[in-house]
Amino acid sequence: MSDLTPQSETPTPTTDKITQAARETIYLCNFRVSVDGEWLCLRELNDISLTPDPEPVHEGNDPIAIERLNLMNMAKLSIKGLIESALNLGRTLDSDYAPLQQFFVVMEHCLKHGLKTKKTFLGQNKSFWGPLELVEKLTPEAGEITASVKDLPGLKTPLGRGRAWLRLALMQKKLSDYMKTIINRKDLLSEFYEPNALMMEEEGAVIAGLLVGLNVIDANLCMKGEDLDSQVGVIDFSMYLKDGGHSSKSVEGDGQITAILDQKNYVEELNRHLSASVNNLQAKVDALEKSNTKLTEELAVANNRIITLQEDVERVKEESSYQLESRKALRSDSAADGQALGETRKQLKEETLLRLDVEKELEVQIGMKQEMELSMKMLEKDVCEKQDALVELRQQLEDLRAINQHLDHLLQSADASSKQKSEVIVRMEEKINQMSGTIKQLETRCKQAEKERDLALEANRLFKQDFGDKIESLQVEVEQLRKQRTGVPSCGFLEWSFSSSLQKQCKNCSGVFCESCVSKELPLPSSILPETVCTACYSLLLQQYASSPT
């Protein structure tokens, strides 16, 4: 708080004024607002003194000028963001739309900047409702807004009336025109604002020019039930600060479903508005029917009155004729009846005046009857037009209901397809889990087979290592035996000739013998199955197998 107190011991009125303004808008003085493309940048100012220097203060170090610049930049960003978001949204804005609420908060701060404090019996008061009331005097069109604001129930403070005025002017699309009107009359604004206030400087004209862009958006703001008197007007800077992790492209996961839901909400809202319009028109038709019935009854009463007056006129005519006849009879009488004749004349004059009055009343009643008939025809025509409009509105309502049903059907089909896809995904995940289990089992079996293969190769290697030398020595002996044999086919043990059909060959020494000499079988190193060998080879192989270790 030491930075917020004046340095001098005897504060001057100018010092108090600057200190109070700095305390009220300290959130704007401690930061300088600048625009970086489409983003808001806040830079903290550490060396701002709240007490005026005796020397002239430059524009760059004036906290009031910084406040004006910050508010102008905030207004630029708020108006730009509101227009872009409204165009992207593509529908009428309501009171709950966050950018619209922030726009009104920024406008409140702009209108409050540099307001003069008015002392009342309840204390000091600062309200921008006074400058807004000037618009009614400068522009007669704004009188409707001012009257509507004053007639709104629930508004008890000037702040609430000022907020309601801003909302109604935005809905009328005349906010920029009204702001330009009051900004051009600085002689009137000087009664409410300080000379260095935003509305008195060039920044106010810039903001008024920026407000022209808001004429492209449509707003439907319901102020009944809104507590405009006690709302807290705080600017939400988080909507404009740059986010480092901000991505310019959003994920298009459920874009079609979102669009369908938006269309459905719009159709439902339009359906509610049309239903309300139909109900209002139905109420008007009922009121017109009641007034028509009442006028018909009044017309019947007037007709009866006219008939009664006509009967009175006929009766007066008969009485007048009778009196004339009686007067003629009295004239034929003596002059003694002069007094009675005078009375008769007097009665005749009275009856004549009464007749004239009755005729005038009859003419008035006839004119009223004609006017009532004309009004009845106009009412019947109006009722017919309203009925035609009601039929068209009902047809539109049926069309909207059909569109709503179609959208519901599309939404249900989209939900069903999404459910089917989710079920397919679940089944595929189950199959994937099963396949992963099968793959693990096959990998286990493959590892076991590789281990068995390695063991078999090792056993084969050991077998070859053990029996390789013996096989080579046996092959050498076989070669020697083959060399010793002659080419004549004869039995080695029985020296008698035999035919070629009875010749048998020894598989070990390849000698030719008779069938009786080659009747033994032994497994040879060169073959797995037992082969036929001669008697000599059989004895030799038995000795070798017996002498070799198992």
Automatic annotation (TrEMBL):
Pfam families given in the database record: RUN
UniProt KW Phosphoprotein keyword: yes
User: Where is each RUN domain found?
Assistant: 94-226
Q: Which domain of life is it from?
A: Eukaryota
| PROSITE patterns the UniProt entry points to | RUN
From the UniProt record, list the coiled-coil ranges.
Answer: 271-319, 390-484
Q: What is this protein called?
A: RUN and FYVE domain containing 3
